[in-house]
Amino acid sequence: MIELSHVFKQFGERLAVEDLTLTVPRGEIFGLLGHNGAGKSTAIGMMLGQVWPTRGEVRVCGHDISTDRGQALQKVGAIFEAPAFYDYLSGRRNLEILSSYTAYTAPARIRQVVDWVGLTGRENSTVRTYSHGMRARLALAQALLPGPEILILDEPGSGLDPEGIHEMRQMIQRLHRELGLTILLSSHLLHEVEQVCSRIAVLNQGRKVFEGRLSDIHTEPRWIRIKTSDFAGALKILRDARMVEDERDGEFMALSKDIGTDSVVRVLVERGMPLYEIAPDRDNLESFYLGLMTGKKQGG
Amino acid sequence: MFYLHLKNELWKLFGKKRTYIGFGAFLIAQNGMLLMFRFTHWQKSWERLLAGNGYLAQDYLSALTVALVMLIPQIILLMPLYTSLIGGDLVAKEAEDGTLRMILSRPISRFRLLLVKWIAGIIFSAVLILALGGTALAFARIWFPWRGMFIYSVWPEHVFNLLSAGAGTRLYLLSHVLMTINASAIVGLAFMFSCFNMKPAAATILALSFMFINLVLEHLPFFEPYQEWFLLYHFRVWLLIFADPIPWSRLVASLLILLAFNATTFLIGAAAFQARDIKS
Q1: Which CATH number fits domain A2-217: 3.40.605.10, 3.20.20.140, 3.40.50.300, 3.60.21.10?
Q2: What is the pLDDT of residues A232-249, one digit of tens each?
Q3: Rounded to two decimals, what is the model's pTM?
C-alpha cells in the first residue's frame, strides 16, 4: 500500500534519508523505529506529500505522491504527535473543516465517527476545553472521517501517560481488527510496537538497517535466566560440567551448544542446588533494536 | 468543494476573538477622532475654512464629511497594520500551530489551499473596510446632519471639493471599493511572506517594513520623479476619487498596478509554498 523506492532527502548539507526502500503491505501493522533524527518523520512527510524527495519514488495506494497526490491520499488518514486543532472552534467544526479537504462529509458520518471514538456529548465544546486524551480521540476522528484504508500514526504515544498509552494500543488493535486498516506506526515506544506490530523497519541516521517480520527477531534461546540461592555455586557446577560458556548480570548464563534447560535442571538438582526459576531469555525488540544501533546486529 | 473550502477559511478567520478585538480597536479610534472633531477647535476651523471660501458651514459639515475625516488616519495608519497582521497569519500561523500539517495530510492541492486562503483574506479586507466605513458614517450621523459633503485633505494628497449629499454618498461608496483593493494588496503582500518558511510575526513585520521603506523613499527628493514606482502612491487613489475633476487616467493606471501587484504577490507566495517542505 505504501512503497518507497530508493528515496533520498537532503536538507541543505544534511542527508536526512538515504536510499530508503520500504514496503508497507496491505493489512499489516507496520512499525517504523529509530532514534530522534533518524529520518522517520521525514519519511512519513514524504509519504504524505509534505516533504519532497530529493531523489527516488514514493507510491501510496499505487499512485505516485509527487505527481498524483490527490489520488494517492484519497484513502489515507494521519495522526501526528501533539495533534493541532483550531482551539477556538468546536470539535465538530474542526472535523467538518479537516474532513472537507478530502471530500464533503455528511453530518451523519461525523456523528457516527464521533460516537466511535467516544466523544459524543462533547463535540460541540470548543477544543480548548478538551483534555489531552480527548484531543487524541479528536485526532483519531479526523483521521477516520474520510473512511481511510491506510492510517499513518507519527509518534502517537508521545506525551501520553501509561493509561493513555494503553488506550492507544487498544485503539490501534481495534482499528486493525474492526476496520481492517493498514497501519503505519512510527514510535519510540518499543514495548508498544512489539505488542501491536506484525512487521517493522528500523532507521538509523537516515538509512534503513532492518526490515522484516517481528517474529524474525526472536532468535533461538542461548541465554537462560536462573534464580537460585547461590548463583556463583551454580555457575561453578555448570562450568565444571562444560554446560555453560558465559554469564552476565549475576542472573544470566549462556549455554554450550546442544545443552538444553532440562540438562541444566537435572545437574543442579542432582548436586542439591536449590533452583527457584529457570527460563530462556529470548531476544526482545529492545535488545534487538539496541543491538542494531550499536552495530552488534546485522539488519535483514 | 471550492465554496466549502472558502467557507471553512472564513470560519477560521471570523471564529477568532482576535478578529473582533481588531474591529473594536478601530471603533475606539474612529470614535476618538469623532469626539476630537466635535469638541475641539477642529470643527470651528473647518467652519471658518468653508466660510472663507464662500460656503455655509451648516450645509457641508455633515455626517459624510465627518465620516471621511474619521476614516483618513485609520486607512493610512491602522488599516495597514491590521491587514498585515491578518495576511501574515494566513499561512504562517497555521504552519506554526501545526494545523497546516494536518491539512496537508489530505488530498487537497497546495495551490487550491492557498487560493482559498487568499480569497478569504480579500473577503476579510472587504468586510473590514465596509465595517469601518459603515460605522464611521453611523457614528458621525449621531452628531451631524445628512447634508452635502466637504472634502479637505492636505496629506497624503491635496483634495478640496464640495459635493451634494447624493454625489458624496456615491463617491463615499466607490472610495470603499478602492480602499478594499488597497487592503487586499497589503493582505496579499503579508500573505506572500507568510508562504515562506517563517513565523507569522516575521511575515507581518516584513510587509510593514516594505511599506515603510516605500513611504520613506517616496518622499525623498531624489525619488520625486519616480513616484509612480512606489506602492503607496497608488494607494492614494481612494482619496483622489473625491477630487474635482477625478483623475481617471491615474485612477485606472493605479488600479491596474494594484491588481497586478496582488497577482504577483500571490504567484510568488504560491511558488514558494509549492516548493517548500512542510515539517513539524
Answers
A1: 3.40.50.300
A2: 999 999 999 888 888 888
A3: 0.85
